[in-house]
Amino acid sequence: MKFFNLKNYSLIILNIVLFLWSSRFETCHAREGHQWRLKSKFPHGSTAGSSHQHPTRSTMSKFPGNNYMWADETMSTQKKGSSKAFNVLEFGAKGDGKTDDSEAFGATWAAACKVEASTMIVPSGNVFLLHSVSFSGTGCGADIVFQLDGKIIAPTTPGAWKSGLLQWIEFTKLNGITIQGKGIIDGQGSVWWNNLPTYDPEDSEGVVSAKMPGTKPTALRFYGSTRVIVTGITIQNSPQTHLKFDGCTTVQVSDFRAASPENSPNTDGIHLENSHDVLIYSSDLACGDDCVSIQTGCSQVYIHNVNCGPGHGISIGGLGRDNSKACVSNVTVRDVAMLNTLTGVRIKTWQGGSGSVQGVTFSNIQVSGVKTPIMIDQFYCDRSKCQNKSSAVAVSDINYINIKGTYASNPVHLACSDNLPCTGISFSAIELNPVQEDRQPFCWNTFGELRSTTVPPINCLQMGKSRKPVVTC
Ligand SMILES: *[C@@H]1O[C@H](CO)[C@@H](O)[C@H](O)[C@H]1NC(C)=O
Ligand SMILES: *[C@@H]1O[C@H](CO)[C@@H](O)[C@H](O)[C@H]1NC(C)=O
């Protein structure tokens, strides 16, 4: 009897501990407004990040997720309101949605940047109008937190943009930068998308109509930085790409939302270029272009538990434009739900390029009404006509595992280069049914293997290996 009492006692203790632990999570999520989803605390092989829409869990990933544990640890040790906190309101920001608060933000940054592990606070309950700003890390301490709980909006007058800019808000050359909070960055992009004349009070002519500049800015860009975290925030209505990383190492994006309408042109959700060790998870990406776009110079990219749509899917490329060399390797995309997107998982390269895409796994992708769920296009061309060229970006070792759902146009479209066939393309557990009309998979110069029967059958795949491309990247 004593034994049982002891056992019951420890069960009660265990229950109390579990209760306290889980209520900690709930508080956190109610605050972030993501109640429907449990935060994925353990990105690697965990099932906690699954949302209502997400497909079944995976145990297939071979990605070294342990590398990313530092990020969660960092976040849990950040304190708000400490002596290292710098609030934009204390540096003269008005937060009335009308006054240009760029200078106040610049002054706040100048102060916060000097202090290691400081926090710059953009408080809730305010709307801050910002012209283009660059938060430079030159001379800054490490591990700065940008606590964004308020809303930041972009100007909609052409005069505020002069002749046009590549980005609106930029963080550069930082060693440890976290943007966190429940805040919103709103690019007010409709004035750019529609290309309509806008009223510009800053124009010297006074009351006139003017058009926005031709160069549409990325909303938020990180350049040349290491250990970058973006978590909790929303970027909406971006004039162009929502969130961009260029030349960054060790990047983590989680509980992030990109939201722009389906018909907003060139509004990629997340755009990666020349970046390594990138982890993106538990995020909702709805936009008018690629949900995630992986460009040249990227490797060790891991994306999981993401909802994509509307949008163009998750894409590697277009690579090799204007005869350039492009290298992308070691990309894993798993547990992604795609709704009514243009493509699902896609690799696109221009003719005439060189370099390679290798070591890519797409697994547990749930598609609903996606036009073309699986696509390799080595004849990518965004003009009416592109010249045929013999060189190409080599595509090899691409694995498609457990890709299921419905397609609207073609289930599988694999168009590989005439001179450099795709090789090592493998398929298992593919089950794609038409929304309306049945279509057969298309392959051109594609070599690989079928590891299980597929629906529909991918009979056009040529078995075995083509000559392995010799590529130095
Ligand atoms: C890609 O992964 C392979 C195997 O783990 C590794 O040897 C290679 O260095 C990785 N490539 C890059 C560019 O990180
Ligand atoms: C390119 O090659 C394709 C296939 O061989 C051919 O149908 C097409 O007409 C060519 N295009 C041009 C611009 O030469």
TrEMBL record:
Pfam families, alphabetized: Glyco_hydro_28 (PF00295)
Cross-referenced SUPFAM superfamilies: Pectin lyase-like
Bias type Polar residues, positions: 47-61
Q: Which family does it belong to?
A: Belongs to the glycosyl hydrolase 28 family.
Q: Which GO terms describe its biological process?
A: carbohydrate metabolic process; cell wall organization
Q: Where in the cell is it found?
A: Secreted, Cell wall
Q: Which residues form the signal peptide?
A: 1-30
Q: Supply the InterPro entries for this chain.
A: Glyco_hydro_28, PbH1, Pectin_lyas_fold, Pectin_lyase_fold/virulence
- Just give the chief location class: secreted
Ordered alphabetically, the record's keywords are:
Cell wall, Cell wall biogenesis/degradation, Glycosidase, Hydrolase, Secreted, Signal
Among Gene3D superfamilies, the record links this protein to: Single-stranded right-handed beta-helix, Pectin lyase-like (2.160.20.10)
Region ranges (Disordered): 43-62
The answer to keyword Glycoprotein applying to this record is no
**This protein is called what?**
Polygalacturonase
Keyword Ion transport included in the entry's annotation: no
